[in-house]
């Protein structure tokens, strides 16, 4: 993990490999070309106030995420200046929002892979900005090189065909003795370390991360952070009547698990339950996925990874809220013992489900976990899942959908996502779509109308939430795994989507603001 320090040192005297500064496009109301962002005054002064002009000569425009490198001015101990684009200067007050800072810091950190230390002289006008720059830099520096051939290095492993991530980030202008700044940095470290752990899990190949292995990772982390953990193996699941989880895992030699993580605070007034879909590999089962759709299905446990990371982060932050995390873990494979289309499963809740498509398996494991989580009567349940391709068609690859049985709570979850910098959008649960899941042989089928499939899946899950319990469903199928190039602080591969939203929601619950 990249180290983080707060520093009041002058940019010129700090020993580092690079100084990162922000630049932006001048406001539309008064076009003036490139603008040097606050925080970089000392650097600009060392260039005799001509930094913007020099960067424009090099082709810099200030566009979001654009990185331009140039030699540091005379007298600086760092040899390099890295200018990163923040986008257009905000018209309202000229202050850059937290997400703009996160993305800029992330882009700079990615550009500095292979570097030992970089000083970030971005705008840190308050504690929120300190936290945003810290988060962006620590997330942007992420690298997953476990399976690459490595060569020895004095400081960190170096991938044979790549570079080690940025080793240390110093935030200039952030005050190490300021309680608010220090708290913001500590929060950023805890959240990003756990989010990056979620990314590691998502990126781990399924031959090394089956349900048993995932459960073992959760047990180790729980022990380290004082979280109570219970793991139900296949025998306990059979005894307890978890027909959904067992039905999905029936075709695999890797047996399923249900993991319960319980974080409690003596000062808690609210109790949240987080439920994560954890399909460690999804072949589609008997309803086999077509060629070209299997290669990234190690990411189908991203919801469980997000829940796991959020519970551990909450424990590390000591949030005054009780949180129970449920990881519904199974591997969906075709075999002679696999669940067939047309089979009927008796779920943990007692309801029966006719399985029309074994590739609609995530809702089956979630249904059992939602019913179990409801027994504790939490103040709210949030499930997280890479559930439907339909949600990707609706919202694209960077935005997740939010459904809920309570409008105020759906709004609260959406606000938590926006405050965290995670793109999300409220979606409806139209009652008329429920009829499409009527089954002649069971209480409900696991498939309904083709159109609005993401909403149909949400309606299915709603059937298994306990009476009178507030619930929201996050379909993260789009942003959970980035198959394109990296951008901002988002890497290629597992992204850790929803971790920050869940943590922010837990913070809101601790303060009594659940909507």
Could you characterize what this model shows?
With 515 residues, the protein is an alpha/beta fold. It has 14 helices and 22 strands. α3 (98-111) packs parallel to α4, α4 packs parallel to α5 (179-203) and α8 (243-249) runs antiparallel to α10 (362-374). It is elongated, with a radius of gyration of 24 Å.
How is this fold's topology laid out?
Blueprint: E1 3-7, E2 18-25, E3 34-36, H1 41-46, H2 51-57, E4 67-71, E5 80-88, H3 98-111, E6 117-121, H4 127-140, E7 150-151, E8 158-159, E9 168-172, H5 179-203, H6 211-224, E10 228-232, H7 234-240, H8 243-249, E11 257-263, E12 271-282, H9 302-317, E13 322-332, E14 344-346, E15 352-354, H10 362-374, E16 380-385, H11 389-395, E17 400-404, H12 407-420, E18 424-426, E19 444-445, H13 453-462, E20 470-475, E21 481-482, E22 493-494, H14 499-510
Parallel strand pairs: 1-9, 2-5, 2-6, 6-9, 12-13, 12-16, 15-19, 16-20, 17-18
Antiparallel strand pairs: 2-3, 4-5, 7-8, 10-11, 11-13, 14-15, 17-20, 21-22
Helix pairs in contact: 3-4, 4-5, 5-9, 8-10, 9-14, 12-14
Please report the total strand number as a whole number: 22
State the end-to-end distance. Answer: 35 Å
**Main beta-sheet strand count, sense and barrel state:** 8 strands, mixed
Instruction: State the strand order across the main sheet.
Output: 10-11-13-12-16-20-17-18
Strand content bin: 15-25%
